[in-house]
Amino acid sequence: MVVVVRRRFVGLNGLKGIALIAIVLYHCDQGALRGGFLGVDIFFTISGFLIFSSLLNHIDSGKGIGFKEYCLKRLRRIYPALILMVPVTVSLAWFINQDMLVGIKNQIVTAMLGCYNWYAIGSGDSYFSQMNPDMFRHLWFMSVLMQFYLLAPLLIYLLRKILVRWVPVAVLAGLALCSALSMGLQYHPGTDPTRVYFGSDTHAMGLWLGAMLAWLLMIIRRSNGRSEETAIMECARLVWRKIGPTAAFVALLILLWMMHHVEQGPVAFRGGIFAASLLSVVLVAGSVPFGSWMQDLLVFKPFDVVGRHSYGIYLWHWPLWLFTKAMFPQWGARHLGWMLLITFALTACCTAMSWKLVEQPVARGGFIAMIRPLPENGMWDAARCWITIVVVLSTCMMSGYAVTHAPQQTSVERVLSENARILKEQQKQQVRQESHADISRNEAPKPRKPLHTMPDGGQMVAFGDSVMLASSQGLQSVFPGITVDAETSRSMVKALGLVNQAKTQRGGLRQWVLVGLATNSTVADEQLNDLLNSVGPNHVLVLVNAHAPVSWVPGTNDALQRFADAHADNVVLVDWDTVISAHPDELAGDGIHPGMTNTLYAQAVKDAIANWIKRGH
Fold first, then answer.
1. What are phi and psi of 134, to 5 degrees?
2. pLDDT tens digits for 408-449?
């Protein structure tokens, strides 16, 4: 049976390879392929198709579902690579960056049990966070698949009880549509979409559509004795043989276009992902028939190799990417190519190791083959077993120690929590002092003319993200009396609301408005124009650019520079990226946040204002 399936479905490894390349590029450099996450939906569609095809073929052979054999095959495919990857990466994290071990115990347990996606949803972890992401965050995908693997045999058993043979196709299509509707209805723009992206209910349309295609092909292969229906299906088969490959090629082109242009937002969650799943069905349906010229494209060797080892590549690439960023925090986004090259090389090596040490032997001889040589392989297999035993045992012991002694918070989180506490106390004290002040500040002071002078802290208000929060003590040291309002995970979207809120408070908006909100997202010209209009002509807007190892930072910094140049009379740009790039040792392990007592950020602000004043403003 296995031989037949592999022969029928030539080219699916190539499709897996294309999808996996998109996923890896998206994970490592979202700017290179903004819609690379759609590769997941191609994978889901292929997986649903293959699982249902395998089960239906097994039933048609007269062996029934064979639940025990089915489960054993799935276990042999999934767990050997996990048993190796998890302890190895946890052990490495202890030596490279212990911040990656925060919450690691729950990650390991839920990933092994196939429910990590629901754990992440319940614990509030964000798939889209750039700060200290979970080391096994990518295993949400495997959890959804594992849950589908458990449900598939039961669903097939129930559907086969339905006498009308087209009804199961309609049921599976209905499940896909319900999943897509659930995703669209539960998604709310401006909020974290992790729930709809991780949910097994909301992100299963590709699996159900793939299953629907498998059931449809089973019906077409069979003859029910009705000459009219048989003639219609034969005609449809002949037509699809002619147009199917072209339709598949067009679907592939559309998917590639979507990967370049569709971002994770309303378009994706309110139809884009479902559309990608439908296109994936067309792509599979037009590629698998005998004689399809699409197979010649998809058996291209690099795609085929990547697809054949897609599982191992997927498991290893994300933690290795995090290790690379941790080891070279000073490289940032400007040396992203080298970081990608190192990650790809390490991923290839680890995937090959996993395949040779555990995956291939277990597939051939069961789990016992991990520690007992296969007779036909001779001395090499005995050496392979000893290497496996040494690697797994040593890393399991090391990872056990690492899990036991894992920190409760990352170093950055500890610093930010302490700074937030100090900042809140200072703000309360400042409010008390202002309440006893005799001088009313209902109107903000106007800029001195003809030239500005270096402001003191009492003339400044600062709105920022976690980078400013980490630098808040330095700002208060350099600018005594400055009001700092900084929180983690803020972006430029919040700036306008913060400024408008400050206008309603006692004393109004101070003359110098410092905004450092460029780290967590792209910055649009419209946002900056609205912000400047709200600040008003009698104030000075001081913008701080970003330094972070994420893809959008160079483009964001360029946008800030253009805006500052175009509004030089009342906009100052602080080039934090250049300043901190000269002192990478002052950054935390995430390559983003400066140390708690660091004054580089505040000094960069002061120097930028001084230079702006010297230029005659």
1. -60, 140
2. 887 777 777 777 777 677 666 666 665 555 444 444 544 444
